[in-house]
Amino acid sequence: MSLLPLNKQTYRPMEISWLAFNYRVLQEAQDSRVPLIERFRFLGIYSNNLDEFFRVRVATLKRLSEMKSDPTREITGADPRKTLKKLNDIVLKQRLEYESVQDLLVSELEKENIFFVDENHLSIKQYEFAHKYFVQKVRPGLMPIMLDPTASFPDLEDDALYMVVILQSQDPKNNRYALTRIPTDTLSRFLILPQIGRKKYLMFLDDVIRLGLDSLFYPFDFDSVQGYTIKLTKDADLDIDDDLSESYLKKISRGLKRREEGQPVRFVYDSKMPDFFINFLKKGIRLRNYDAFIPGSRYHNLKDLISLPNLGSSQLVYAPMPALPHPRIKAFARLFPIIREKDLLIHFPYHSFNNFIDLLREASIDSKVKSIKITLYRLAKDSNVINALINAIRNGKKVTAVIELQARFNEKSNIDYSSLLHEEGARVVFGVPGLKVHAKLCLITRREKNKDVKYAAIGTGNFNEDSSKVFSDVTLMTAHPEITKEVDQVFNFINQNFEIGVYKHLLLSPFKMRKTITQLIKKEIRWANEGHKAYIHFKLNNLVDQDIIKALYAASRAGVEVRLNVRGMFCLVTDTGKPETRNIESIGIIDRYLEHSRLYMFGNKGEELCYISSADLMRRNLDHRMEVTCPIIDPELKKELHDFFDIQWRDNVKSRILDNGLTNPYRKQSDKMPFSAQSGFYEYLISKQEELV
Questions:
Q1: What number of CA atoms fall less than 13 Å from residue 290's CA on the CB side?
Q2: φ/ψ of residue 548, rounded to 5
Q3: What is the DSSP code string of 218-272?
Q4: H or E element that contains 316
Q5: Bigger pLDDT: 85 or 262?
Q6: Per-residue confidence band for 647, with pLDDT thresholds at 50, 70 and 90
Q7: Which of 75, 78, 313, 338 has the maximum number of C-beta atoms within 10 A of its C-beta?
Q8: Residue 671 per-residue DSSP state
């Protein structure tokens, strides 16, 4: 089979694709159909995403730009410095739009009698309230560092918010300068002020500090004081070396310390800051010309808008969608007999994550359960998964926890949890050398009628009760003997024997998934060439891998129907009018829940194949991570996922067309009634309940 050769017209750079995705998040903040407080929260999500983009992707390009060898061009497809400049230009353009949207939302909030107010516009009662809060709650945690323009600049923490302070005197020679960290990790970013009549007021923590600067710097003589916020973003790479003589845990711990000393990649500052001080900061922080040195508004770290309190009516936030009971799981019923009878699909957050916690709790106290094995990637802050595993250990079960220490930005939490489990007596495994374990697996072994029976949970998302309320994911619970046997083989591989084994059902990365997905695409091409209806339907977070994209172009050229529902990075180029894209339709949905489940569906000449997966179609997932893709065998569950995909595809409210201009237009409703996929699937699951009543 000949594949379309890659060129600039058939592959969009990954970093540009990522910015296009984040722009869709910003567009949600502009959508007047979204409740007002939720629109602010989308601004916060956009800001948080952009922080991570600079810490990871821009930081990588920056390191490549400092390399002198030509191979950097092969990695990025272009000169890294030129790419950095292009990215910064896009970010600055989006920044202007962001600020425009923010101003619009603030004015909309005022129509609801909710006002942001700074330190210069307080009533007497509000001033007294804010100043008391500053003295009692804020001031004790502020420890300013006095700055000397002739001395080295202090190290700034990555992604923290700081205030630089200028104490001005009539004689500029007596001016003093200081730096203090704004404690957003221990205090809310927003202070709710006393109400005046029907009007309600919010104040940024930054302004509370500005209000009290006089009392903070009382030892000095000065005529006026100004505070300007700044934020530095650093390279978040852990820089793990290959020293096999040192424990993996020590490497990660040392890498976390190195991260604190990472090179700066973006500096955001208040544009009203005096020029001489901007130059002083730029020199002190060692920013280079191709770094992002971004003038901004008075407030940074606007990711805190995610937690903006709602002081208005319930109509300013999404209407509640309480988790539904699973139709086959009765209240307080034992789960093992239910799973043994028939496979279960749990859809989060439409179904409660407590279903999985209940499975672990039941396993922890069931005298017939011998062992629990589980992979852990990102865990909740106060994880009931960990609590259930500890309870299982205390009840005499053997617990093996595969904890991925390189889950970015969760490394310290995972180190702490691994230490806790180890102290309780669990066998803690830190993955496979050279492979990040990203699979979502749990295996429970139970003694039944003198033989071991295995139960597995295989998911598309983390075993995390916090994120399960926000991320849309699916988990299969099964006692299928062949699938559970293969899940056990995965754990045996991870558990240091490194024997791959034979897999007839699971597609295991990095050993089998790429090859199998490519073969299944080729089969659809063959069916199309023979005159059969052929289709490929993928629902993903990211479609980046160049070889898979080439295979999809070949499928389109052969007449295969290709439908791609991609929330995040989308590097395939559409709308060219050429045969290689004529049969490809692509959408992305961003709504109240973060679409996170991965589905791979193939027509297979009328015998549809359906898989759920922890893996996106990216080189890292296919070639450098331990991922598991699992077939759905039960015909009813296969139909359920088919219906789920179709419901997503019908969306004409929150689905956007992934076009070449990266404008992300909403799909036109034409004469159709508005249909939201997430609301539609919620109603679908309610109907499934009613069928069994």
A1: 17
A2: -65, -40
A3: TTS--SEEEEEEEEEEE---------TTS-HHHHHHHHHHHHHTPPEEEEEEETT
A4: none
A5: 85
A6: very high
A7: 338
A8: T
pTM: 0.91
CB 373 within 8 A of CB 400: yes
**3-class DSSP assignment, residue 20:** helix
Q: Could you tell me which residue, 359 or 74, shows the higher pLDDT? A: 359
Q: CB within 8 A of 188, min separation 6: which ones?
A: 205, 307
- Taking alpha carbons only, the member of 212, 210, 216 closest to residue 229 is 210
Check if CATH label 3.30.70.100 holds for domain 14-311: no
Contact 395, 365 (CB under 8 A): yes
Q: Output the CATH code of domain 508-691.
A: 3.30.870.10
pLDDT band at 258 (very low <50, low <70, confident <90, very high): low
Exposed e or buried b per residue across 19-55, where buried means at least 16 C-beta atoms within 10 angstroms of its C-beta: bbbbbbbbbbbeeeebbbbbbbbbbbbbbbbbbbbbb
Handedness of CA 117, 118, 121, 125 (dihedral sign): positive
Dig out the tokens for 85 from the structure. 């400049």
DSSP 470: T
Query: pLDDT band at residue 163, thresholds of 50, 70 and 90?
Result: very high
Distance, CA of 654 to CA of 669 (rounded, Å):
11
Active site residue 438: yes
Is 339-502's fold the same as 508-691's?
yes
Q: Whole-angstrom Cα distance, residue 298 to residue 206?
A: 9
Indicate the residue type of 653.
V
Q: Poorest-confidence range of 236-240, 251-255, 294-298, 404-408?
A: 251-255
The pair of structure tokens assigned to 643 is: 């219906």
Domain residue ranges of the chain, discontinuous segments joined by +: 14-311, 339-502, 508-691
| DSSP-derived secondary structure for 409-461 | T-HHHHHHHHHHHHHHT-EEE--BTTBEE---EEEEEEEETTEEEEEEEEESS
| Strand, coil or helix: 9 | coil
The residue that leads in pLDDT, 669 or 50, is: 50
CA distance 555 to 524: 7
**Closest to 560 measured CA to CA, from 586, 530, 536:** 536
Radius of gyration for the chain, computed over Cα atoms and rounded to the nearest angstrom:
27
**Rounded to an integer, what distance in angstroms lies between the CA atom of residue 249 and that of residue 431?**
11
- Alpha-carbon distance of 301 to 184, in angstroms, equals 9
For residues 172 and 545, the model is more confident at: 545
- Which H or E element spans position 347? strand 344-348
Return the DSSP state at 155. Answer: P
Q: Do 585 and 592 touch, CB atoms closer than 8 A?
A: no
Task: Kindly report the CATH number that applies to the domain delimited by 339-502.
Answer: 3.30.870.10
| Torsions phi, psi for 89 (to 5 deg) | -65, -45
**CA distance linking residue 446 with residue 317, whole number of Å:** 45
Q: What is the mean pLDDT of residues 556-560?
A: 96
First and final C-alpha spacing in the chain: 51
What are the structure tokens assigned to 48, written together?
């948080």
Q: Which among 326, 438, 480, 537 is annotated as catalytic?
A: 438
Q: What was the pLDDT predicted at 669? A: 66
What distance separates the 2 farthest-apart alpha carbons in the chain?
Answer: 90
- Angle (CA) 457 458 461, round 5°: 115
Phi/psi at 152 (5° precision) = -70, 150
Higher pLDDT among residues 234 and 8, named by residue? 234
Q: What is the pLDDT of residue 1?
A: 31
Q: Provide DSSP, 92-150.
A: HHHHHHHHHHHHHHHHHHHHTTEEE--TTS--HHHHHHHHHHIIIIIGGG---EEE-TT
Tokens of 573: 């180029």
